[in-house]
Design goal:
globular
């Protein structure tokens, strides 16, 4: 049953990424809904499963950009691994800490992605990090907290959907 919920969440967030994100973008700043799926899953299921889901989600995302095939898979795998590692040690119950986790995760993902994408012009990667990645990380973190709060208000936690690795 957990796999069904994971697939459903992935499909919902994939649709949100494709349809809603461009509509609510503030210029070039848009939330990364697929990153949220990877972070939530990695928090609850651990580093290995988080890395595997990150790879799958990233590869799916890369299919839209064959010139850089594998870049999202790499960055989302790293994201899933490191967030999963942190999540198995402790889960952030505070909204402020959860917001910070989402923001740092999104920013870390974008820094790695942009550095590789713009290589060897690291200066242009830095400009993009400052002008787009930081605001996008905040925007993504806001949606991450919103998703967590919606589940909490509905009487469920995301942990009920994905299950906690024991």
């Amino acid at each position: 049953m957990r796999n069904f919920y994971l697939l459903l969440a992935l499909l919902v967030f994939l649709v949100l990424q494709a349809v809603l994100a461009p509509r609510i973008a503030l210029g070039s700043i848009a939330p990364d809904f697929l990153l949220l799926v990877v972070v939530f899953f990695a928090l609850y299921r651990g580093s290995v499963r988080g890395a595997l889901l990150g790879f799958a989600v990233g590869l799916l995302q890369d299919l839209g950009n064959p010139d850089h095939l594998g870049l999202n898979a790499l960055t989302k795998s790293l994201l899933g691994y490191f967030v999963g590692d942190a999540g198995t040690k402790t889960f952030p119950e505070s909204v402020t800490i959860l917001f910070g986790l989402f923001a740092v995760s999104a920013l870390g993902h974008d820094v790695i992605y942009l550095t590789i994408f713009h290589w060897p012009r690291v200066g242009s990667a830095f400009v993009t990090v400052v002008t787009a990645a930081i605001p996008s990380a905040v925007y993504t973190a806001l949606f991450g907290v919103l998703v967590d709060r919606v589940f909490a208000l509905a009487g469920a936690k995301v942990v009920g959907v994905f299950g906690k690795e024991g």
